[in-house]
Amino acid sequence: MFPLLLLRSLLGIQLLMLVSVVLGSQAESNGTVSTIPTLSGCQTSCGDLTFSYPFGIGPRCSRGGDFELTCNESAQPPTLLLHDGITQVAHNIVTADTGYLYSSSRYIGINFPYTIPVSYGVHTYNMSWSSPGKSFTLSFFWMNITGCDFDIYFSDRDANITSLICTLKCPTSDITDMAARQNCNGTGCCPFFWERIRAFNLKFVRHRESSPEVNYNRSSLWDYINVTTFGAYLSWNIVDQPNCASAKENNTKFACVGNNSRCIDNDDSSLDFGYIGYSCKCNSGYVGNPYILSGCSRDRAQQKANCSRVCGHIKVLFPFGIEEGCFAREQFFLNCTNVTTSTLQLGYYYEYYLVTEINIDEGLIKYTIPDDDEGSVNHMSDDDPGIFVRSSESVSLKWVVANLTCQEAQANSSGYACVSANSNCIPVNSTSGYVGYRCNCSYGFHGNPYLYSGCEDVDECKQQDRCQGMCHNTMGSFYCTPCPEKTVYDPTKLQCSSMKQQNALLGVIIGLCSGFTVLLLSVGGIYLTRRWKRNIQKRLRRMYFRRNQGLLLEQLILSDENASEKTKIFSLEELEKATNNFDSTRILGRGGHGMVYKGILSDQRVVAIKRSKIIEEGEINQFINEVAILSQINHRNIVKLFGCCLETEVPLLVYDFIPNGSLYDFLHGGSSNELVLSWDGSLRIAAEAAGALCYLHSAASVSVFHRDVKSSNILLDSNYTAKVSDFGASRLVPIDQTHVVTNVQGTFGYLDPEYYHTGQLNEKSDVYSFGVVLLELLVRKEPILTSESGTKQNLSNYFLWEMKNRPITEIVAPQVLEEASEEEINCVASLVEMCVRLQSDQRPTMKQVEMALQFLRTKRAESNQPAAGKDEERQPLLMKGDINSYQLSGIDFGKKSELSSSQGSKKFYSLEQEFLSTAGLPR
């Protein structure tokens, strides 16, 4: 922020100096040259720079002492130096007072460039600067220091303060001194600025020793330390006396000798370190150089025209201007810093306004005040209000064209600002008294009174209600006459019209009003009908919401700290929009319990929306159960529930969209499925599903028994990652319970026989169902198959009987036999046999099943590493992932599991026969 302010201030000071020189030269050309004889023939320039008294070259032409200058004509271009002969003057030295209200300080722009050659073996270098005299203080400076491999220390000699200001780092590539200065960020260049100081030292200490080889054929960054002044300004005062009172007592040395000038104390002792002093200024209404006789002349405005008058969308009318010479006086110069954003700035240095509107008629400037860090306008003193004074409005300024009375201004016709023939002089007052004058167009005219033809006649006849008859415009006024016979005044046309036309117009108006009334009633009826229907729909949705236990579920989701943050209760309107009003083309699948639609939510998430068929009110609890379970589960292999909708007769569930169907589709989809599920893919999907069930049993905050594990409930996403779904039949189980007694539910072929007979649901019931899924992957047959005799047979029963009569290699699917090793087949067959045992306490846990499958995957990955890519010709579904080692516990694949005894087998067969009779069992 500070560099930006500094740039702005530098620009303002330079422009302020230029303004003062222009006014000073104008004053001299108008006969106000100093009457001090010693100034006759004095040099007033050096090269391109100008200066004026009290500064000058030689004691006869200056006030002497600190104000003596030196011009080095031998330099190219010639260099102007201050009294010390070292400090270079960078800009014109302006001592004339322009009457400008923004700053009364005096500044001299200076340079102190410094170059230090760097020698190998020398590690410390110094640079010093002191004020060129008691009259001067370095108000602020900004320098760029270029070099390489130095720590830079700054010392304030008066305050005796030393601090590290920067470390010059070496660039990684060879760059020039100029390139480093353009991007001065510590690499090859350091920026540095300071305020209010009279003397300082810079010390450069080598950061680390560099060898000559490093410096060989390098740029000047490695060979020199360059100090370049970006901007530096001295403030100056007359300091031979401490204040105005002392100076006036010693009248022979009093600096404010100009007629109509006054003395101003410099009361900022912190700035000048004890040398307070004073400065001079022209009285209100006068401008010029107060340090010479007749230097202050009467204030007046000057005319210019034919200039650019727009800054963005803001009109800049004369006497204001945005180009040199296009304004009546220097105080009316506005800086258009950005046309695109209409940034119009009034003022310089740290004090300025951002102008938003210029009102010539009212004599007002509307503005905004920038942020305090960017500057604000100085207080306007009551005894010298200047050209601008505060108005009664908080965000506007009143302005005058000169600090003169109307009589004084009109007496000098060449300087009178109200040049339009139809303009008036308007006196302007502030709370402290008279300020000056401005101009305004006479009554009946409008425009710009500061231009010769600026005030134009106002055509009052174009204004409504001026006359109730015929209107006649005159220069600056108007007059009215009655309408002729058989005519009447038409206020819409602002003229007299015949009565027939008026009657016809009246009929048209009546017809339009009638038509509009009918149209309004029709639109109102349609609107009320639609609103009535919407109200009915809203009441119906609220009824369904309450009947579907919406309040209970909403409270459950909000109060349960384990529920997912993203679980949401959707409105029916949202889901209708997502599915294009449940369009038939959006149906993903149909089943015995309803349909699943594909939807796209407003946040572009693709979802699957489960819309069940009519269910009994008692099954609502089952629906609530599924939502409650899924809202507490967050696992990568469990389908994500986004939320539900309770505003329909049958609730809707919103899931993450799983694009590749179910495992059942891949295993038993027939020719419709072009992809083949490889053995590697089978093991991975089985391990992921087992991991999800293990999480439900033992890792979730509340144990969950799925109760309907089957291949059609294992979905595959876009990466063919397994996702366990359909928790409508699941049960939450407290941690301290091993089982729950419930009505038997499940799918024939996967249902645990022990659970069917006892009604006791435990985690081993899911193990049995998963064993059937694992068996499907092994033999690639459906859970209920048809024998050669045409009878229905359970897949697990079929497998156990076939294992007694044939080797396993004759039972498994041909594809599995081709891809899997005999050892892997035996291991999976043994795992299946243990999962589908009749007694639940003899089955492994899901954790043991998952570890066994992960062990097989790891062992297979190690043995098949050289043969990677063998199955690519078969279009495998699965990508190889990272294999983690698992240590099996409690499951021994070293020997074949023994099947049940003959007696037990008969008993098992008897149970299966009874189990087959339950085909109509609800899931």
UniProtKB/TrEMBL annotation:
GO terms for biological process: cell surface receptor signaling pathway. Residues 1-27 form the signal peptide. The chain crosses the membrane at residues 504-529. Keywords: ATP-binding, Disulfide bond, Glycoprotein, Kinase, Membrane, Nucleotide-binding, Serine/threonine-protein kinase, Signal, Transferase, Transmembrane, Transmembrane helix. It is found in: Membrane. This is Protein kinase domain-containing protein. It is a single-pass type I membrane protein. One of its GO terms (cellular component) is plasma membrane. One of its GO terms (molecular function) is ATP binding. PANTHER family: PROTEIN KINASE DOMAIN-CONTAINING PROTEIN (PTHR27005:SF541), WALL-ASSOCIATED RECEPTOR KINASE-LIKE 21 (PTHR27005).
